């Protein structure tokens, strides 16, 4: 049974978590700026019993980092940078890929096979590594200091991470649109003289609207994963602060965005596991929230379960037979014939 998305409890659960993080992040910055509580050691009877990094306590529920800074405060400050940047990149990917997908699926049907063959090569390139090499000259601080502002570095990173995925997303959308374009009701519309633009506007776009929302959610999660990869490679969102003195400090993030919190503290995984695990858990919680929003949206608009439908498609007896047949095809063929979902 269909319902409005704002009445679906699953969607609201994921949406509320993300909005709560953003409200807390902006509210914290407006009141306290980027100042974070600091607790370097705990003492009893004037005798130090624990020094930073301090394990989680009641007053510091997520503990402190090696400098004694409150991990909860850093997570809250960095939420706005991480989440909003991921959403902007995901939106740009879908927004830029959509018109290209319409061209591939309607106007360039005969050429789509060859175009997909070229785009298919992107599936074999580790995109995180490619992004690292493209962004390293921009985000890694040179010895003379950054020549760009932090806003410019954010814009460049957003554009690079968006444009890298546009060819793949365009190919997937083109395959999906091409399937819809072959449907009988589209053929009927063409027969009575409907133009391709009208068919796209009145028939194809409404048919893929739901899948566009799902694709947007998938791209948000994919972007967050790339952030983690770049963070582990010491390439942080907004720039990596490098010292070039005689005794240099480890690379540090300029903001408290979450990938920087992982890359900056991952070496403490055994000594103080709460320090790197805190941003990792918030990455996971954010991705889970996006997945809940996708599930709730599908339930509200179609009355079905997105993940249950995918599970049935994957493990149904018919699909099992198809998998046996698919294994006989080359890996290129499997990728080339993909559709959006």
From TrEMBL:
The chain crosses the membrane at residues 12-31, 81-109, 121-139, 154-173, 212-237, 274-294. Its main location: membrane. Residues 83-294 form the ABC transmembrane type-1 domain. Coiled coil: none annotated. SUPFAM superfamilies: MetI-like. InterPro entries: MetI-like, MetI-like_sf. It is found in: Cell membrane; Membrane. It is a multi-pass membrane protein. Keywords: Membrane, Transmembrane, Transmembrane helix, Transport. Belongs to the binding-protein-dependent transport system permease family. This is Peptide/nickel transport system permease protein.
């Amino acid at each position: 049974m269909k319902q409005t998305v704002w009445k679906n409890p699953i969607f609201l659960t994921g949406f509320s978590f993300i909005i709560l993080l953003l409200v807390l992040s902006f509210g914290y910055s407006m009141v306290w700026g980027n100042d974070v509580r600091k607790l370097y050691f705990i003492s009893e009877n004037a005798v130090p019993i624990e020094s930073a990094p301090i394990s989680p306590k009641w007053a510091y529920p997520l503990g402190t980092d090696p400098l004694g800074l409150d991990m909860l405060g850093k997570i809250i400050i960095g939420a706005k940078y991480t989440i909003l940047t991921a959403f902007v990149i995901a939106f740009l990917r879908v927004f830029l890929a959509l018109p290209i997908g319409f061209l591939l699926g309607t106007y360039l049907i005969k050429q789509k096979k060859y175009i997909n063959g070229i785009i298919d090569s992107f599936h074999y390139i580790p995109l995180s590594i490619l992004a690292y090499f493209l962004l390293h000259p921009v985000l890694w601080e040179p010895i003379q200091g950054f020549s760009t502002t932090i806003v410019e570095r954010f814009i460049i990173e957003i554009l690079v991470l968006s444009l890298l995925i546009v060819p793949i997303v365009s190919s997937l959308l083109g395959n999906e649109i091409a399937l819809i374009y072959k449907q009988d009701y589209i053929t009927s519309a063409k027969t009575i003289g409907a133009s391709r633009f009208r068919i796209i506007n009145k028939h194809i776009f409404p048919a893929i609207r739901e899948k566009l929302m799902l694709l947007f959610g998938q791209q948000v999660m994919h972007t967050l994963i790339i952030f983690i990869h770049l963070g582990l490679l010491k390439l942080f969102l907004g720039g990596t602060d490098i010292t070039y003195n005689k005794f240099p400090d480890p690379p540090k993030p300029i903001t408290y965005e979450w990938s920087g919190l992982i890359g900056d503290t991952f070496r403490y995984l055994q000594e103080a596991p709460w320090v790197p695990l805190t941003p990792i858990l918030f990455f996971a919680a954010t991705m889970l929230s996006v997945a809940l929003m996708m599930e709730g949206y599908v339930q509200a608009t179609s009355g079905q379960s997105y993940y249950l439908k995918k599970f049935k498609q994957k493990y149904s007896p018919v699909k099992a037979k198809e998998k046996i047949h698919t294994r006989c095809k080359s890996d290129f063929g499997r990728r080339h014939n993909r559709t959006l979902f």
